[in-house]
Amino acid sequence: MQDHSPLIDKENRTINSVKFVSSLENALGNYIKKLETNEFDSKIWKCALLKLDDIYENCKPNEL
């Protein structure tokens, strides 16, 4: 049985968790394939490394 509900239901302010996880897995899979098929000095890799740096910086504990 197929679920025909939308990914995001703005009226009810809900997200279909199954569709969200599936969409996220698909998007990440496509992104990984692009990284695997591009040279390390390509724009996609430069952007990925910037994102990883930002994630790393945001994970550091705040100093009081």
Describe the structure in your own words.
This protein is mainly alpha-helical and 64 residues long. The protein has one domain (10-59). It has 2 helices and 2 strands. The protein has a two-stranded antiparallel ribbon. Strand 1 (8-9) and strand 2 (14-15) form a beta hairpin.
- Which structural class best describes the helix and strand composition? mainly alpha
For the biggest β-sheet, the strand order reads 1-2
**What is the H/E order?**
EEHH
User: In total, how many domains does the architecture comprise?
Assistant: 1
Distance between the termini: 53 Å
What would the principal axes of the Cα set say about the shape?
flat
In the predicted model, the low-confidence regions spanning at least 5 consecutive residues are none
Radius of gyration: 17 Å
Tally the helices: 2
Write the layout of secondary structure elements.
Blueprint: E1 8-9, E2 14-15, H1 17-37, H2 43-59
Antiparallel strand pairs: 1-2
